[in-house]
Amino acid sequence: MRRSLAPSRLKRLNGEEEEENAKRSKRGRILSSSKKSVAPETVVEKPPAPITAESLSNHEALIRQILTKPFKVPILNYQGGIGSRALGVRRDGVRRPLHDPMAPNALVLYTPPQLSAHDLLKVDKDKVQVHVVVDPVLSNILRPHQREGVKFMYECVTGVRIENAYGCIMADEMGLGKTLQCITLMWTLLRQGPDCKPLIKKVVIVTPSSLVKNWCNEIVKWLGGRVHPLAIDGGGKEHIDKQLTSFMQTYSQRVVNPILVISYETFRSHAHVLNKGEVGLVLCDEGHRLKNCENQTYQALVKLQCQRRVLLSGTPIQNDLLEYFSLVHFVNQGLLGTSQEFRKQYENPILRGQDAYATVDERKKAEERLSQLIGIVNRCMIRRTSALLSKYLPDKTEQVVCINLSSIQKQLYQHLIKSDAVRRTVKDSNDKVSLTALSSITSLKKLCNHPDLVMDKILSGADGFEKAISLLPKEYIDTYKRQKLQVELSAKLMVLDTMLAVIKTTTTDKIVLVSNYTQTLDLFQRLCSLRNYNYVRLDGTMTIKKRAKIVEKFNDPTGGDFIFMLSSKAGGCGLNLIGANRLVMFDPDWNPANDDQAMARVWRDGQKKPCFVYRFLCTGTIEEKMMQRQAHKKALSSSVVDCEEDVARHFSLSELRSLFQLEENTISDTHDKIKCKRCVNGVQMKPPPADSDCTCDLSCWYHCADKRWLVDPILKSCWPAGISFVFYQHSTKVKVDEKPAVKEEVEDETEKDNDEVDDGSGSESNEDSSSDFEKENEAYND
Ligand SMILES: [Zn+2]
């Protein structure tokens, strides 16, 4: 979470630093004044009450008070040393918390049991427990949900929440400050404990290679010079071995570099060194890498001698519940039984119940098991959705934009799905997607972006594209060979082109364009040169250092770059693109997490403008089906992770198998499939539920079969370029418009065009084709 320190805050911080210094020097003085050290009276009231072995006379107390008058460094704004103890200052006998638990804003993680005055006399002075209080440097910047998160993790790793279990999963959605919460936890454990000594001496942070630097930067950013992390990512094997050995072999009270940041790859290849000694805490960033118990990284990490394990992940479930099991198993072994037990007890019944054709009994059983599972898991996992962010951030409008294929795209599409190659794959009753199927899927997806992306296959008459060349107008091939971009051959590109033009001419907004394919980024680049737009491009090949540079340049409001092109494969985690407030996902990804990650680049802390996210899909094509499958996966994830019992069972497994079917005569296959009751003849008669937002599934979004009902003027003006349907929703619960949608129609009379007639007939014939399609699908399943 990035937040500038307001002057008032800064003042308070300094004030607290002074107080700290005062306390430190106090200790020093007390020490020099008397060996039998007793805290001054002024402190007595503050918990934990220091134990006084003897009582002082008023006179003695006065002297002590004079002697312990806080020493002030005579330098203006002096902030104190960066360590908590100055050189040569020894602790006095009295145990006290490192930070004042009564201070304003103090975040107390542990409160020792209250002792009666009688017990106080009996208790061994050296065993009195103290409060564990987060360093004010951190607690003063934590937001309420972050304070809660830190407390939760602390309770997990100290075994308070579950007996004999010391791990947890921090599964907050992106943008909620997982990193800061973890740094707070780590820093607290490294410095404090109820027994007046640090709970841990060493921390290992394991992270994807691209984020090693990022972690170090964050640590330095939040903790200043208080600690120096040791970063290891790649390099000579011997050198690394040496560094790691020395890290593992340090056992002294104060380790110089108590924090090791290491990439998963390096960890794996040096596990033999790291598994030799004990580590106090391990943090695994992007923890979904450990979704498979079998893989080598998992195996290497599991062997680490470390009880306290924190796994960070914004996306705990990506594909199936078993992955989820792996993650919980990693942090708290045995909590969910063995993988076989888990499968039998939870996975199988839950999946059965989520199928659209499940019986009532099966559904009931699934619900039971799910709530059982949720109950167990919730004790060691914390997950807040980014809906929380809406409190701090400007509104975000997400829009799923269905765009008709251009006629040439449609012809090629049909050619491919009717080809022998595809027929053969569909006939194969084999459940596993064959290699040819995968390549056909890729071709379909690329074709949806632009025919140019499959031109080499067309020209060579590759599998599925035999004789497809005859479908192309001759001048197209010529123009293609001259490498001239023909925007109008792709409907999505036409909409994008229009959108960029409107944004550029009517606003000062910047935009991020995201695609799965570097080839599509090439396409964007050609479009930019055609229209003279300034842009930057980031894909997997760029070095981390260079990335940071172009990001900074782009975010600078005075910088002239209008467009930021991002490959979703480039690992956009941690990338902050708040210079833009609009983002186009040009093609969907199979994994909703990747899409979410890309979208979180602009709608994040620091963003000042309202945001607009556009997800482009070609109507009726594989792209819509991917979107539907995403919805299915999301339903699974949110049912376990967000406790939303009422999983929308809109998509059956058989529907998900229909990838190779082009749904024609529809304005949105997805809208057809959700069997929406709020829309009548293409007009939304009833608004979505009042408490719905972007995190709800599409059935609870606004449905627009006509541009008149759009709220985003930019998208409205792009409608004629080929848009057939739009779903939109806001991040914040806006006041629902009371007046019926039909009324707006009248107001917007001037904009009326012929579309409506087409839409009406279109959506009617949809229903027919969709039900036909279902019958067909059922037959296919039998
Ligand atoms: Zn609808």
TrEMBL record:
Domain (Helicase ATP-binding): residue spans on this chain: 159-334
Presence of keyword Protein biosynthesis: no
InterPro entries: Helicase_ATP-bd (IPR014001), Helicase_C-like (IPR001650), P-loop_NTPase (IPR027417), Rad54_N (IPR013967), SNF2-like_sf (IPR038718), SNF2/RAD54-like_C (IPR049730), SNF2_N (IPR000330), SNF2_RAD54_helicase_repair (IPR050496)
Acidic residues composition-biased segments: 745-771
Record's subcellular location: Nucleus
Subunit description: Interacts (via N-terminus) with spn-A/Rad51.
Gene3D superfamilies: P-loop containing nucleotide triphosphate hydrolases, SWI2/SNF2 ATPases, N-terminal domain, Tandem AAA-ATPase domain
Source organism superkingdom: Eukaryota
GO cellular component terms, A-Z: nucleus
Protein name: DNA repair and recombination protein RAD54-like
Start and end residues of each stretch annotated as Disordered: 1-46, 738-782
Native organism: Bemisia tabaci
Compositional bias per record (Basic and acidic residues), positions renumbered to this chain: 772-782
Domain Helicase C-terminal: 495-654
Role description: Involved in mitotic DNA repair and meiotic recombination. Functions in the recombinational DNA repair pathway. Essential for interhomolog gene conversion (GC), but may have a less important role in intersister GC than spn-A/Rad51. In the presence of DNA, spn-A/Rad51 enhances the ATPase activity of okr/Rad54.
GO biological process, one term: cell division
Broad class of the protein's primary localization: nucleus
GO molecular function: ATP binding; DNA binding; DNA translocase activity; helicase activity; hydrolase activity, acting on acid anhydrides
UniProtKB keywords: ATP-binding, Cell cycle, Cell division, DNA damage, DNA repair, DNA-binding, Helicase, Hydrolase, Meiosis, Mitosis, Nucleotide-binding, Nucleus, Phosphoprotein
UniProt record similarity statement: Belongs to the SNF2/RAD54 helicase family.
